[in-house]
Design a protein that fits this description.
4-stranded antiparallel beta sheet; Ribulose 1,5 Bisphosphate Carboxylase/Oxygenase; alpha+beta; about 140 residues; two-stranded antiparallel ribbon
């Protein structure tokens, strides 16, 4: 299964140069950038673990790329994403979000169906990744 997350989810994987170009665009717009990672990419899991602190007051993407590479090296079997925040609305608003790393194997999700009163069907998603303990979900 190929998980679709973020702004560029239907494009091929970005190279480091393409990631740098997107980070440069965010920095030119004055958006602080942060890096997050997870081993549970459920669509409703909006709160991933933050890698370090948000990166403010940068002019070039080199510092962000160094942090992305450090996160990738520390968590080679996790999803890693870059987020850029736009504070112009007076609140923290995500302006840009995209994946920069996927685990080598993506186990996918199971669709669960429950029949209720009057034969009413309800559906839910359960990630196969959560069958294993946190930190070991992707063969770590």
């Amino acid at each position: 299964m190929y998980l679709r997350h973020g702004t560029f989810s239907y494009l091929p994987e970005f190279t480091d140069d393409e990631i740098a170009a997107q980070v440069r665009y965010a920095l030119l717009n004055g958006w602080p950038v942060s890096i997050e990672y997870t081993d549970d990419p459920h669509p409703r899991n909006a709160y991933w673990e933050m890698w370090g602190l948000p990166l403010f007051d940068l002019d070039e993407p080199d510092g962000v790329l160094a942090e992305i590479n450090a996160c990738r090296a520390t968590f080679p079997r996790h999803y890693v994403r870059v987020l850029a925040y736009d504070a112009s609305y007076g609140r923290q608003t995500t302006a840009l979000s995209f994946l920069v790393q996927r685990p080598p194997e993506e186990p996918g999700f199971a669709l669960t169906r429950t029949e209720g009163p009057d034969r009413r069907q309800t559906y839910g998603l359960r990630p196969y990744a959560t069958d294993r303990p946190q930190g070991l979900r992707y063969g770590g």
